[in-house]
Structures are given as structure tokens and as C-alpha cells.
């Protein structure tokens, strides 16, 4: 048996091989089922576990992410990123996140109104040369001065409208970014989804990049696509021009002028839409490579000291180079494919002038134009008809150019909507779990599965708990114990045996594959409940020393005097740092300021300050010397905190009432 009651024996026991019963009742407070080789269930049962959604999602993710072409390659995502029905559905989906209030709708509607004003004033600017030519041909100075003055007025007005259009386009982009990011943040940063999305969501790589860069890409590009930018008109201008100048062209050049313009544009549009799908998937892929490239560099920066201790950074150099190669090779593919698109775009741009002259020629030489145009107004007719025609074709040009420029946009939209859908799926899954369980805070309730309940009693209880890793390996088959306030249980066992996994299940990060457990709520405001301390010290960004101790409840009202915090720091041997850093209320880069041991002590100070009913410590004293380790456990005992520790060190055994050894 591998359970030792140190209160009874006073020393550690390693257990004997001939006693491997499933359940070991040690005393009234703790009953423990041990994992032994013969409790692993049949092969069929294990296969069933592997078929769980949990496992399925992980497997899909692994297959997608580490494909034959290495990191960052995901064929399904690449194929998805096309200008097709799926894209428009995703775009619609994101628009609903962007337009959530009447204010956003008002802003959104300001844009077409502004563009309509722009087209209307632009029409008068377009007419002006015709009038000026007529005044010149008629040698009419007064008319010439009048026409020039009017033109000055229109030109001033159109400049103001254009500036406003730019302003409103950028403003809308920023507002949309805020709305979409806020909605996605809300989903991502709530109910531990920033964790579970990584375990469960198939194919959603680099959520950080999608949130930080891709959403901005969506909103910037979309506002430009609708409203235009400094260099090009937008969708509204394109359609506005087509509508207005179709009428004008038909009136001036007759129906065949229209047929020429529409026929020519339709031809180019078909080419462009076909060619856009040659580029878009590779842009999607590029985003993946860029994200990975940045991530590897961030890792080199944040783990610089570890890498420098371990070696020369050769592997990291190779990794970043390999990823750079992927970025560069993929960019070459994009550039090559872009040639086709550019050919269509440029050819269309230059040939437009030719098409215009041909159409005018047909109107003139067929006798239509001169039939109804007085001699004195022929110059005006030529100038205004060509202006109309060019404006009509410009409308089409805008639309066609836009389709060649949307490859980035398609990629951004697909990546952001993929993340949003994955987050919604996570939320849905948790809500379903919630329906079948009872009680607890919002945070805990959403973590609930049918196997978990929040108890009012300040104790942790597991009943025949089975734990399965995301890869489908059964780590613990049937574990039952009760841990009351003031009790202490040490979980030991081989590396990879499932110790931290047990804590993951108790926290609610992984589902239990069988059995059940109950515990007080975690992370309630301030004190009490269960406090989990992870294996690696975590010191949050931009917090003072005092707030680090209050973390995660940094915003709760705290009436404790500074002395309380200083006393707690004293209990973990950190009084010195208060003076060193300049007080309790100073923000510093704690990862750099403190040694790993000091970081671990500060995290332990957190547990002591919170004074929970139960503390769950994952190798939390590994960097402390034995004397300080003893001292910290004594401080927990003084407070009557129930302790569940995971650890390897023999020195921990006498500090606990019970020891549970997980077998391999
Ligand atoms: N996200 C994951 N996906 C798949 N398998 C995982 C995942 N996390 C952990 N595992 C596997 O689950 C097993 C148990 O891991 P766990 O972290 O519980 O080990 P441990 O007993 O705490 O080990 P150590 O003492 O080394 O910290 C290991 O084989 C590990 O590889």
C-alpha cells in the first residue's frame, strides 16, 4: 500500500508490492484509492476514453498544427480562406459584433451619406471643364471667370468632404476594433477560456495574434473597403459612381456606351474574382507563419537567461531561421500569384482610356452625337461625355481593384471569425455542463460538470475520481479522499504520473473522466475557499508588491494595514525586499527584480495573506531551503489551512499528515 499516515508511523513509507488494493482506508478523514497497474481498465474502456470529445479535439489540433510541412502548417485553414459563401457568412458574423449600439449604426450610416455628397459634388467638378472649354471657344471672358469661380467653390467643398470621409473611415475602424475586440476579450478572458481554448479548440493557433493584429486588420481593411482610403475609392464610391454615371453616360453616349462600359468591366471582374482565390489562401498561411515567427522571438526574449545558461541558442537560431524561411518562401508565392492580379488591375486601368475613346468615336462617327449637339457645344459634349464615361469606368475600377486587394482581408476575417466561433463553442460546452450541476459562484458554476459540485463545507472530497489526459491516457483510475481544514495531504509519484493533472481536474481545467468531487469555491473575493498555487511562480504585470500578494483579488477593498502585509512577507523571509524595492506600493518588473526563489516566496505570501480554507500547492516550495519550507508549512498550520501539496522532496513528508503516492 502506498499511503502513509505520518501521524501514526512518524516516518515515510514506500509501501510494499504485495499490497495493492484499490481502496486504502487510512483513518476517518482520508480514504484513498490507489492507481495500480491492474486498475487501468480494459483496452476497450481505454479506447472509449480516447474517443471522448476532449481527446478528439486535441488530436485534430495536433494533426492540423504539426503537419508534414512542420510548424504553422494547417491545410484546412488555408483552403478555407477563400472569397466564397463561407467568407461572406464569416463577415456577416463579425459585422454583428461590430454594430452593437445605435451610436455605431449612426457612425456606420454617416459613411454612405458622406460618400454620396462626395459623388454629387464630384459630378459638378466633372462638368466644369466642359463649360470652361465652351467659354474659351466662344471667347467669353465673363463666362470664363464665372465658370472658374464656381469651380473653385466646388473644389473647396469636395476637399472638405474628402477630408471628412477619411476622418470618418478611420474613426469607424477604431470603433469597430474596440467593439469586436471587447466582445472577443470578454469571451476569451472569462471562465478560464484563455486556458481551455488551447486544450480544446482544434486548429485555433495563436489566439493572441488573432486578437491583437488580425482584428485590427479586419476593421482597418473593412472600413477602407467601404469608405475608401487616401489612394482609392471604396465600395460606396464604386457603386455610387456606377449608378449615377450609368444614367449620365446613357444620356450622353447612348445605350452602346453603357454596353461597352459594362461589358468591359464584367470581363475584368470575372478575371479578378477568379484570381483573388489564387492569392487569398496563401495570405492566410502567411499570417500563421508571421505569428509563429513573432512568438519564437518573444520566447527568446522572455527566456533569454534560461537559453543562455543551457547553451548557445543554436536550436533557437535554427527555429527562427526555419520560420523566417517559411515566411519568405510563402511571401514569394504571394508575390508570384499577385502578378496575375496586378496584370488584370493595371491592364484594366490603362485600357479604360482606350475604351472611352472608342465609345466616343462610335457615338460621333455613327452620327448620334452631332445630331443633337449644337456646334458651339461640341467641346462641352466631348469633355462631359468623356468625364461621365471615365467616372463610370472608375466606379468599376474601384470594385475590381478592391477585389484584388481583399486577399489580406479575407485571411483576417477567416482567422478572427474562427477564433470567435471556437470561443462560442467553448462557452456552449461549459453552459451545458452547468445545466447539469448545482451551486457556486459564476466562475465556478461555469466550470461545473456533472462530476463537480461546490460545497459549503470547508473540505475537499473526491469520490472514485478518474483522470484521463487529453491524449486519452488514463492517469488515475479511482481516487477517493476527504481533506478537511487543518488536514494536510502530500501527493507524490513519478514524474508524468498525473499529480498536476489531479490539480487540473480539481480546479476544473480538465474534466474528470469518471467519479466526482466537491470543494469550496476557488478565487472568491478576498479570503477563504480554495487557493491553487501553480508550479511556476506567476507574478502579474503592473502590480505593486502589495497587490502581488492580493492577486488575483487585486480589486477587492482591503482594510489591512501595511504591517499585515509586512508580517506575511516576514513569514516567507521576504521582509528585506520591501526596503530594497522602495516600499509595498511600488510597481516593478518582478520577474527581473526577484530571484526565482524570491518569486516563489512571494507567491507563498499570497496564500498566507488569503488565508484560504484549503491551499493546493504544486511544488510550491521547491526553490526554498528545508528550513524555510518548514517555516512556511508551520505558518499554514497556524492558520488552520487544509493543505494538499504535490512534491517530490522527502523533506515534505513529515510536514503532512497523509501521503498519497501515485504509481506509474
Ligand atoms: N495538455 C496535455 N495534453 C496531453 N497530455 C498531457 C497534457 N498535459 C499533461 N499531459 C500528460 O499527462 C501526464 C501527466 O502530467 P502531469 O503534469 O500531471 O504530471 P506530473 O505527475 O505532475 O509530473 P511532474 O512531476 O513531472 O510535474 C503526462 O504524461 C503528460 O505528458
From TrEMBL:
Keyword Transmembrane found: yes
GO MF annotation list: ABC-type transporter activity; ATP binding; ATP hydrolysis activity
PROSITE patterns documented for this protein: ABC_TRANSPORTER_1, ABC_TRANSPORTER_2
UniProt cross-references to InterPro entries, sorted A to Z: ABC1_TM_dom, ABC1_TM_sf, ABC_transporter-like_ATP-bd, ABC_transporter-like_CS, ABC_transporter_sub-D, P-loop_NTPase
Annotated SUPFAM superfamilies: ABC transporter transmembrane region, P-loop containing nucleoside triphosphate hydrolases
Disordered, as annotated region: 1-21
Residue ranges occupied by any ABC transporter domain in the UniProt entry: 460-664
Keyword Transmembrane helix: yes
Membrane-spanning residues: 105-124, 144-164, 261-284, 347-369, 381-400
Annotated keywords: Membrane, Transmembrane, Transmembrane helix, Transport
This protein's GO CC annotations: membrane
Similarity remark: Belongs to the ABC transporter superfamily. ABCD family. Peroxisomal fatty acyl CoA transporter (TC 3.A.1.203) subfamily.
Stated name of the protein: ABC transporter domain-containing protein
Amino acid at each position: 500500500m502506498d499511503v502513509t499516515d505520518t501521524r501514526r508511523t512518524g516516518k515515510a513509507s514506500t509501501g510494499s508490492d504485495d499490497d495493492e488494493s484499490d481502496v486504502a482506508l487510512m483513518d476517518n478523514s482520508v480514504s484513498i484509492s490507489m492507481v495500480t497497474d491492474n486498475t487501468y481498465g480494459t483496452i476497450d474502456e481505454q479506447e472509449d476514453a480516447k474517443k471522448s470529445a476532449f481527446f478528439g479535439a486535441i488530436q485534430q489540433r495536433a494533426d492540423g498544427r504539426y503537419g508534414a510541412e512542420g510548424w504553422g502548417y494547417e491545410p484546412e485553414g488555408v483552403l478555407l480562406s477563400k472569397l466564397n459563401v463561407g467568407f461572406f457568412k464569416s463577415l456577416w458574423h463579425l459585422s454583428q459584433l461590430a454594430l452593437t449600439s445605435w451610436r455605431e449604426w449612426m457612425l456606420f450610416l454617416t459613411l454612405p451619406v458622406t460618400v454620396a455628397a462626395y459623388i454629387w459634388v464630384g459630378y459638378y467638378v466633372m462638368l466644369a471643364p466642359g463649360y470652361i472649354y465652351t467659354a474659351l471657344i466662344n471667347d467669353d471672358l465673363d463666362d470664363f471667370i464665372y465658370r472658374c469661380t464656381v469651380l473653385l467653390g466646388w473644389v473647396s467643398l469636395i476637399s472638405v468632404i474628402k477630408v471628412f470621409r477619411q476622418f470618418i473611415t478611420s474613426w469607424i475602424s477604431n470603433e469597430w476594433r474596440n467593439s469586436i475586440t471587447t466582445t472577443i476579450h470578454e469571451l476569451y478572458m472569462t471562465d478560464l477560456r484563455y486556458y481551455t481554448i488551447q486544450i480544446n479548440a482544434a486548429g485555433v493557433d495563436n489566439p493572441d495574434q488573432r486578437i491583437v493584429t488580425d482584428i485590427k486588420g479586419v476593421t482597418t481593411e473593412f472600413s477602407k473597403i467601404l469608405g475608401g482610403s487616401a489612394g482609392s475609392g471604396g465600395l460606396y464610391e464604386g457603386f455610387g459612381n456606377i449608378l449615377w454615371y450609368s444614367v449620365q453616360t446613357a444620356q450622353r453616349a447612348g445605350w452602346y456606351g453603357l454596353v461597352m462600359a459594362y461589358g468591359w468591366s464584367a470581363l475584368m471582374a470575372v478575371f479578378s474574382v477568379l484570381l483573388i482565390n489564387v492569392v487569398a489562401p496563401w495570405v492566410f498561411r502567411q499570417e500563421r507563419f508571421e505569428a509563429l515567427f513573432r512568438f519564437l522571438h518573444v520566447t527568446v526574449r522572455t527566456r533569454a537567461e534560461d537559453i543562455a545558461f543551457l547553451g548557445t541558442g543554436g536550436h533557437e537560431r535554427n527555429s527562427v531561421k526555419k520560420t523566417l524561411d517559411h515566411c519568405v518562401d510563402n511571401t514569394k508565392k504571394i508575390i508570384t500569384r499577385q502578378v496575375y492580379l496586378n496584370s488584370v488591375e493595371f491592364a484594366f486601368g490603362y485600357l479604360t482610356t482606350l475604351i472611352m475613346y472608342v465609345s466616343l468615336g462610335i457615338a460621333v462617327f455613327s452620327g448620334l452625337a452631332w445630331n443633337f449637339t449644337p456646334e458651339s457645344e461640341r467641346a462641352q459634349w466631348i469633355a462631359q461625355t468623356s468625364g461621365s464615361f471615365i467616372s463610370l469606368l472608375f466606379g468599376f475600377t474601384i470594385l475590381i481593384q478592391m477585389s484584388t486587394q481583399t486577399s489580406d482581408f479575407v485571411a483576417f476575417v477567416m482567422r478572427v471569425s474562427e477564433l470567435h466561433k471556437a470561443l462560442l463553442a467553448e462557452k456552449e460546452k461549459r453552459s451545458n455542463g452547468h445545466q447539469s450541476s448545482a451551486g457556486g459562484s459564476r466562475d465556478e458554476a461555469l466550470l461545473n460538470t456533472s462530476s463537480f459540485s461546490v460545497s459549503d463545507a470547508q473540505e475537499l472530497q473526491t469520490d472514485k475520481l478518474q483522470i484521463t489526459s487529453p491524449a486519452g491516457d488514463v492517469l488515475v483510475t479511482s481516487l477517493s479522499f476527504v481533506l478537511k481544514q487543518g488536514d494536510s495531504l502530500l501527493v507524490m509519484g513519478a514524474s508524468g504520473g498525473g499529480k498536476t493533472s489531479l490539480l487540473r481536474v480539481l480546479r476544473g481545467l480538465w474534466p474528470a473522466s469518471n467519479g466526482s468531487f466537491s470543494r469550496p469555491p476557488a478565487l472568491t473575493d478576498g479570503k477563504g475557499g480554495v487557493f491553487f498555487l501553480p508550479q511556476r511562480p506567476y507574478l502579474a504585470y503592473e502590480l505593486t508588491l502589495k497587490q502581488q500578494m492580493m492577486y488575483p483579488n487585486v480589486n477587492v477593498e482591503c482594510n489591512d494595514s501595511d504591517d499585515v502585509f509586512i508580517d506575511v512577507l516576514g513569514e516567507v523571509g521576504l521582509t528585506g525586499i520591501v526596503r530594497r524595492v522602495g516600499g509595498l506600493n511600488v510597481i516593478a518588473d518582478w520577474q527581473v527584480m526577484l530571484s526565482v526563489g524570491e518569486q516563489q516566496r512571494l507567491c507563498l505570501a499570497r496564500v498566507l495573506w488569503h488565508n484560504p480554507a484549503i491551499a493546493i500547492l504544486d511544488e510550491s516550495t521547491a526553490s526554498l531551503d528545508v528550513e524555510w519550507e518548514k517555516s512556511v508549512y508551520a505558518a499554514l498550520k497556524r492558520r488552520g489551512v487544509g493543505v494538499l501539496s504535490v512534491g517530490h522532496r522527502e523533506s515534505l513528508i513529515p510536514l503532512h499528515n497523509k501521503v498519497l503516492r501515485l504509481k506509474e
